[in-house]
Amino acid sequence: MTSTATLMLGIETTCDETAAAVVERQADGAGRILSNVIRSQIDEHAPYGGVVPEIAARAHVDLLDGIVASAMKEAAVGYAQLGGVAAAAGPGLIGGVIVGLTTAKAIALVHGKPLIAVNHLEAHALTPRLVCPLAFPYCLFLASGGHTQIVAVLGVGNYVRLGTTVDDAIGEAFDKVAKMLGLPYPGGPQVERLAAAGDPHRFAFPRPMMGRKDANFSLSGLKTAVRNEAERAAPLERQDIADLCAGFQAAVLESTADRLTVGLALFQERFGPPRALVAAGGVAANQAIRGALQSVAARAETALIVPPPALCTDNGAMIAWAGLERLALGLVDDMAAMPRARWRLDTDTPTPAQFANTRAQH
Ligand code: KG4
Ligand code: ZN
Questions:
Q1: pLDDT value at position 48?
Q2: Which mutation among 119, 127, 144, 290 tests ligand 1's pocket best, with the greatest number of atoms within 8 A of CB?
Q3: pTM of the model
Q4: For 98, which of 17, 55, 75, 182 is 20 to 30 Å away at the CA?
C-alpha cells in the first residue's frame, strides 16, 4: 500500500445479504479489493419463498459483527489504517439498513473515522469503476429482485433516471413465476435452467411496453399471462414447466432489449454517446439476458461491461468503493445520517454546468 492509497470498510445490509469488505483506492483512482465477505440468508428465507423483513433484520444483527471482523482480518488491516467507514443507508428493508448504518456509525465514532452513508443504488452504479478504468458518462442497467432501472451515470452523485419499472422488478418477476411453477427460491437461476430445455414459442406471451417512446418496464401483465397459461395447462408436467419458463424468459429478453434500446437512444440525445452500457444486479447473471444486452450494446455502438457476478449482486465491496469515490470528493456524512427505506438515486436533473464538470471527471 502506498501512502496515498485510502482504505475503506464497506457494510451492506439492505436486503438478505449480510456483507462487509475492505477496499483500497490508489492515488490514480484504481481500486483493489482486500476482502469481500458475504453471508447470504437464502436458507433462512427459502421456506417462505421470498425475503421476510423481520427474519432478515434479526439475521443481520446476529451476523454483522462477525462478518465485519472477518473482513478486517482477511484484509489484514487495523481500524486505525482505515480512511473511513461506509454503510448502505438505503434504499432497502429498514430493519437491516438500521443495523448496518448503526454499526458503521459506532465503528466510525470509536476510531475517529469519517462516515459515508452510501445510497445502495449509487454503489451498484459505481461498481464498474472498481474493476476497470471507466470514465463518465455511462449507461447503467440495474436489474435485481428489488430494482429495475436505466440510469445515466454522469458523475459521482450525479445520476439521471431514464427508465424504471412501473410495477414488478425483473428479478421479482422471475421469483414470482418460479414460485407459481413450484420452483424453489430464488427463482431466477431455476427459471433460466429450465428455460434452456423449453420451447419459447409454445406459449404466446405478451412483450410488455414494446415500441413505447419512454424507457420504462412493466412485468406484472406478463406474470399474470404466465399464471393463466399455467392454470390452463395444469396439471403441469416437467416439459410444460420448461416451456412456460422458456416463453417467459423470451418475453423478458425481447422486452428488455427494446427498453434498453430506447434508453440508450434517450441517453445519446441528452448526454451524447455513453462510454459503455453497464449491467448490474442479480438478473445480469442470466446468460440469455447477457446475450441480449450484448446485441443491444453492439447496435448502439457502445461497449457492454458486466462486472463479475460476485460484484453484480449485493456485496460490501461496492459499498466500500462508493464510499471511497465520495470521500475522494470530500462527500462525507455525520452521525445524523438517517437510514432510508426509500431513496431515489436522482434527486434533480443536472444543470448543464454540472454536466460539463462531470464530463471532465475521471
Ligand atoms: O442483486 P440481487 O442479488 O439482490 C437484490 O435483489 O438486491 O438480485 C437477486 C435477484 C433475484 O430476484 C433472482 O431471482 C435474480 O436476481 N436472479 C436471476 C438470475 N440470478 C439471479 N434472474 C434471472 N436469471 C438468473 N440467472
Ligand atoms: Zn442491490
A1: 84
A2: 144
A3: 0.91
A4: 75
